[in-house]
Write a structure and sequence with these properties.
heterodimer; A: 388 residues; alpha/beta; Rossmann fold; Ubiquitin-like (UB roll); de novo design (two linked rop proteins); five-stranded mixed beta sheet; 11 strands; 45% helix; 15% strand; B: 597 residues; Alpha-Beta Plaits; Fe-only Hydrogenase (Larger Subunit), Chain L, domain 3; four-stranded parallel beta sheet; 17 strands
Chain lengths: 388, 597
């Protein structure tokens, strides 16, 4: 635990002497396969939270034999406590566009879409203006790739990639059965790369700074840095780009108000880490991965209320199609209420924990599969607060 | 391109199946049944209920067997500890949002959730009861279908049926999370929406969330009423399906036992809708020839062609909602059920000296939409509601059981006369293409004096389970009065299931198709696959019923509607000639457009 927390400035870096379009031109001059190799070498993993190797995703899509392919930027930033993509799209959207254009060039896609959550509609007007300009630059370069914006309508589940495709196709936003995966059959059932906003910016910045610079940051399993959304009981809430692989205790020292009793890492669907585990928790793919949300709770907070809020959220935001998620979320929510009221014995919490195992392995998508994360980590670490 | 074989192991047993096969299917090949609820052989894969989850070696997640294709070297376990625990949890979860008042449920004894719950011995519910009180209020607005949201397990079979098979989309998924439910447009009652009452959703609902509106008690009351003369008529498709609901395999013909059971139940007279089917052929065949003459000889531009059959009440309502501009193409003939009703309370009542108001006409139908049809204002030409109660095949099976009748041991009996005689042409009304075939057998002979030029009268091009079928019949050697039809190619088409009907109607609308006569049945397979038929249904089962129908036809002494002696007598004594004024008064009607929303 001797690694020091390191604030970095890659994403929002305003590099005066670098024309952003030069980054694109540099990439377009490289063979597509080299870009993929670079990306794989960089170890860049998806910044949405699931952490799939970006280079591999692109490679799979490139290898698909299809006239039509798509690049989609997932800007359906719906995880409670996450607000970094909004900032990125507001401040450095061109870096996102460039990442998408590089991807289009590499995998052989002609169309790119930014799927932006309904609540961010206020960003769309400005974004569209910049996009029109960027699309012109692409045309000037004879790159057969254009980007358009698609707006969601506010369903959390549409951040799940296959539900996002359904939504874009005009259907109910419900996750699909997998396989097939998006790289084979995504939007319009065509091979599709779908990347988080932040991932695409890192693609751009790896191209700009080189693989080595990126690899110098982070750890073996978690290369590079990441943008964190810090909220809750902190005097300095906001957006911070930090090196991956940091120990949680250092994060707490830096950001909390001195009275932190728990940090929820990874939003509502993430894990709750209690004070006693701050010292041996690493933020990264080898420890607790996160899409960026870091919610700090101090000793004035009821962890029952925290869990209750999360479960209410999932009960409402489950798409409702699969049994483990639709009914499971309701049972967890009503279950802790029943225990609180004394209508069910404390041991009922253990029955519910078993239920979360079923939800984790039998639900259709990541939503239902991950509800057990906050449930188990809060129930295990704050059992008294749940019962009494 | 032939598919290559994939080798895998299921419960340690090696199996080779074609690429693209699901785990579910592969397991069934080696006789491992994996339970399912949302999966249905007629529908697209959903993978919603998760009851079919299985363990795949090396995978972190369980796989939905219905939605996961096999892959080379896969090792699947269908009953591991993980699978069993999860599956039990899932059944318990489904039960926790399901109103388990099984003893009061219409589907008691034929409910897939109940069976599963029983198999897994789900005892006291582990989980909390989530049934919403407001969901317990049933929608009984429709005379055909009852919707009970408190029984719904959100498998979406009904939605897929209504949307994909029937192209009606009266039912859809609304809301998300705990508020997700199956709803009509704006939550309106079923009788106010585009629902065609076809009942295909009822046939596929695994629980009691969608059932037919039952009239069993009303029928028993009528039978017990000493002042009522209760006449029962049976549709063609009942005789080839009823046995399934009484414990027999699909495809068994039980016409004689059916009649015997109805007599034992206590109906005053047991008559045959098939009689009216033969009558329909005379009326509709004449209408077709008249329309052709007016269009081709008189060049009357007001004559709508192609003529379309009007036997299927779901199809009629579909047309009223979706293709109102084609309503004039519908034959003005009422359905056989309604022709039968109108004649029962006029001609027949006179014959047997019973006052029409003392007569109760019950029909046994493979159909839920017939319940709606009988209640239509157009269907009161006898001065009374022409047909009083309609029972589905399933309801009749219940009555037979209630009456304590040992169906297997029944001796065959014959339909009463009159209105009990029929031909093979009437029997095949029960299968898709049957009305077309029956009409051609008669119309061709009216025009040429010769039988249709098909071996043994079997017009095979219009048979089968293809969604839309087309045929062309050259008319040769016509009688002098039909000289305008000499050498004409008569183009006909057949569709079954409303999604197929829609394809056909769009072709007609665009002018792409040049048909003279179209048969449409609202349900897949025709009436034999009707919404009132025994559950379950599948293509395989429907094919068996169709085979039985055609076998019944081949075994009949008379196979052309115009040979039915009772029909001949009816014209002689009562109606005069086909499409006469009297026939129009009693046997024909017109339909009006309905709004889509």
């Amino acid at each position: 635990m001797d690694k020091q927390i390191k604030k970095v400035d890659i994403i929002f870096q305003m590099d005066e002497d670098c024309n952003l379009l030069d980054i694109l031109d540099k990439a377009l001059a490289q063979p597509a396969d080299d870009i993929i190799l670079d990306l794989i070498d960089s170890g860049l993993k998806g910044r949405g939270g699931a952490g799939f190797l970006t280079g591999l995703k692109w490679k799979f899509t490139k290898n698909e034999d299809s006239d039509v392919k798509y690049v989609i930027c997932n800007a359906d930033e719906g995880e409670p406590g996450t607000f970094k993509d909004r900032e990125i799209l507001d401040k450095v959207p061109e870096k996102v566009f460039i990442g998408m254009a590089i991807c289009g060039y590499v995998v052989g896609a002609k169309e790119g879409y930014i799927y932006i959550r309904g609540e961010y509609n206020f960003l769309v007007k400005g974004l569209q203006k910049k996009l029109d300009n960027f699309n012109k630059h692409l045309k000037d370069r004879n790159l057969d790739f254009q980007i358009a914006i698609r707006s969601g309508s506010g369903a959390y589940v549409c951040g799940e990639e296959s539900a996002l495709f359904e939504s874009m196709e005009g259907y109910r936003g419900e996750p699909r059965n997998k396989p097939p995966y998006p790289t084979v059959a995504g939007y319009n059932k065509k091979p599709t790369v779908i990347n988080n906003v932040e991932t695409l910016v890192y693609v751009t910045m790896i191209s700009r700074l080189g693989v080595q610079k990126f690899k110098e940051l982070g750890t073996k399993d978690s290369r590079g840095s990441k943008v964190f959304s810090v909220s809750g009981d902190t005097p300095i809430p906001g957006i911070y780009e930090l090196e991956l692989g940091m120990p949680l205790n250092q994060f707490v020292d830096e950001f909390a108000d001195g009275d932190a009793k728990a940090v929820q890492v990874g939003g509502a669907s993430g894990h709750c880490v209690p004070r006693k585990k701050f010292n041996d928790t690493i933020i990264g793919f080898e420890g607790i991965p996160t899409g960026g949300s870091m919610m700090i709770f101090n000793s004035t907070r009821s962890m029952y209320n925290v869990l209750h809020d999360y479960l209410e959220f999932f009960t409402e935001e489950s798409c409702g199609q699969c049994t483990p998620c639709r009914v499971g979320c309701q049972q967890l929510l009503k279950g802790i209420e029943a225990v609180k009221r004394g209508e069910k014995p404390p041991s009922y919490l253990d029955d519910l924990k078993k239920l979360t195992t079923t939800m984790r392995i039998a639900a259709k998508c990541g939503l239902g599969q991950s509800v057990g994360n906050p449930f188990n980590s809060i129930v295990d670490n704050f059992r008294e607060e749940i019962i009494y | 391109m032939s598919k290559y074989l994939v080798n895998l192991k299921i419960n340690n047993i090696p199996v080779s199946v074609e690429e693209g096969t699901t785990i579910l299917e592969a397991a069934s090949r080696i006789n491992f049944r994996i339970p399912t609820l949302c999966d249905h052989p007629d529908l697209n894969v959903a993978g919603n209920c998760r009851v079919c989850v299985v363990e795949v070696k090396g995978a972190k997640l369980l796989a939905a067997a219905c939605a996961t294709p096999v892959s080379e070297g896969m090792e699947v376990f269908t009953n591991s500890e993980k699978v069993r625990t999860s599956r039990k949890h899932i059944i318990e979860l489904l039960l926790s949002e399901h109103n388990s008042d099984c003893t009061k449920c219409f589907k008691n004894g034929n409910c897939e959730l109940q069976t599963l719950s029983s198999e897994y011995r789900i005892g006291d519910h582990v989980f909390l009861d989530l049934v919403k009180p407001k969901d317990k209020i049933q929608d009984i607005s429709s005379p055909s279908i009852v919707k009970d949201d408190s029984k719904c397990i959100r498998c979406q079979r009904c939605v897929r049926t209504c949307t994909d098979l029937q192209a009606v989309s009266a039912l859809a998924v609304i809301n998300k999370g705990d508020q997700q439910k199956i709803s009509t447009f704006l939550g309106k009652p079923l009788n106010e929406v585009v629902c065609t009452n076809c009942g295909q959703c009822v046939n596929r609902c695994p629980t009691g969330a969608l059932t037919e509106r039952s009239y069993i008690d009303e029928v028993w009351d009528a039978i017990y009423d000493p002042n009522k003369f209760v006449v029962v008529e049976t549709a063609p498709a009942i005789r080839v399906a009823l046995a399934e609901d009484l414990g027999f395999d699909p495809g068994l013909r039980v016409t004689g036992k059916l009649v015997s059971a109805l007599k034992k139940i206590g109906f005053s007279k047991v008559l045959d809708t098939d009689f009216a089917a033969d009558l329909t052929i005379i009326e509709e065949g004449t209408e077709l020839l008249t329309r052709l003459k007016r269009a081709l000889v008189d060049n009357d531009e007001n004559i709508a062609l192609p003529l379309m059959t009007s036997c299927s009440p779901a199809w009629i309502k579909f047309q009223e909602h979706i293709f109102p501009d084609l309503l004039n193409n519908l034959s003005s003939c009422k359905s056989p059920q309604q022709m039968f009703g109108a004649l029962s309370k006029t001609y027949y009542a006179d014959k047997i000296n019973i006052k029409a108001q003392d007569m109760v006409v019950v029909s046994i139908m493979p159909c839920t939409a017939k319940k709606f049809e009988a209640n239509r204002p157009e269907m009161r030409d006898s001065g009374y509601q022409d047909v009083d109660y309609i029972l589905t095949t399933r309801e009749l099976a219940m009555m037979i059981r209630q009456a304590g009748i040992d169906f297997e041991k029944l001796e065959d009996e014959k339909y009463d006369s009159i209105l009990g005689e029929s031909t093979g042409a009437a029997v095949i009304f029960g299968a898709t293409g049957g009305v077309m075939e029956a009409a051609l057998r008669t119309a061709y002979e009216i025009v040429t004096g010769n039988e249709v030029p098909f071996t043994n009268l079997n017009i095979t091009p219009v048979r089968g389970m293809e969604g839309v079928r087309e045929a062309t019949i050259k008319i040769k050697n016509v009688k002098p009065e039909w000289s305008f039809l000499e050498g004409v190619d008569l183009n006909v088409a057949v569709a079954h299931g409303l999604a197929n009907a829609k394809i056909l109607m769009e072709k007609v609308q665009s002018g792409e198709a040049n048909y003279h006569f179209i048969e449409v049945m609202g349900c897949p397979g025709g009436c034999l696959g009707g919404g009132g038929q025994p559950i379950p249904t599948s293509l395989e089962i429907r094919k068996k019923r169709a085979e039985a129908i055609y076998a019944e036809d081949e075994g009949m002494p008379l196979r052309k509607s115009h040979d039915n002696p009772e029909v001949v007598r009816l014209y002689k004594e009562f109606l005069g000639e086909a499409n006469s004024h009297k026939a129009h008064d009693l046997l024909h009607t017109h339909y009006k457009p309905r709004k889509r929303y």
